[in-house]
Predict the 3D structure of the following.
Amino acid sequence: MGCFFCYTRGFPGNFRLWHDRGLITVSKDFPLKIARQLDSIRVASCGYLSPVTDPFQELEKHYHYSEKIVEIFVRRNIPIEVVTKCWIPDRVIHLLSLQPDSFAQVSILTLEEGKRKLLSPGGADTTSLLKNMERLKEADIYTVARIDPVIPFVTDHKEELLSLIRELRKRGASHVVTSVLDIPLNIQDFFWKNIRRFWGKGVEKKMKELYQEKIGPYLHADTGYRREIFSWLKETVTREGMSFALCMEFEVKRGKVEGLNHTYMTTLNCEGKDIPIYIRKNNHFEPAYSCPGNCLNCKTPLCGIEDLAMGREGSKKDWKLKDYRRWSKILYPCLPL
């Protein structure tokens, strides 16, 4: 989307190729690879398009990879979510509507189109983003609005945020996810250059005074600032009739990194929608044993997979394809994959 603040600009490999040279890499036969992976497991969780790139950029009009992947999940009755700053194709909305636990997240940082053009020049215009929500609501698809990230001194004005929150609710959002911008250390010069370019040295100076906390490879805004705005957003979003959560927000306490979400979220998970683990029966997946889908808080796994009781202290929370294959064998030791 050309967002100058995007955290993926700091990633290595193909992401760096895009940041340095503007070259976009497409993985050959990626939907086919996804289909083969899904057919190699009997345990599945909700698909995610995508934590690192928008699924409906211009290349989608040529390759249709995202549409194909959504169809691959839906045909197997596995839930999938899409996260976008772009116009959602009609067929994707139709496919999402066929799978009851599938849903969509629409990222919208501001109602001011002039700001939107500077922040996300490759994304859809503000009117189209709001229309996305209306179309999703009309199709009876659970819809999340992402005010993610809030950018200090640029999009954090409370009057502006209040107008945005009310408009999101009016257009069909049920849940709001937010964060305050983190700045990747390895692209901070690029970031500050663009802040100066679009908002001037005055805003740059105030932001540099605010961004003094380092957590991992990122600069974070002062914890006091973040806590104040999260408290206000939680109160405002709740008052407007939506649920609320944070995304990837942390603080350092006594030398230990701790998450902030448990203090502010009003739901059991970040997306606000509890989605069960799905189990394959023949070629069709079904929800597992009335599982409520709250893996992050679960201590007694109804799905039968002890690893997924992530409410237990010290549990792992980063699962890979090999883990899903292992769980498949645990639950169905006598059946071939």
Remarks:
- Residues 8 and 53 are 8 Å apart (CA to CA).
- The mean pLDDT is 93.
- The longest helix spans residues 188-210.
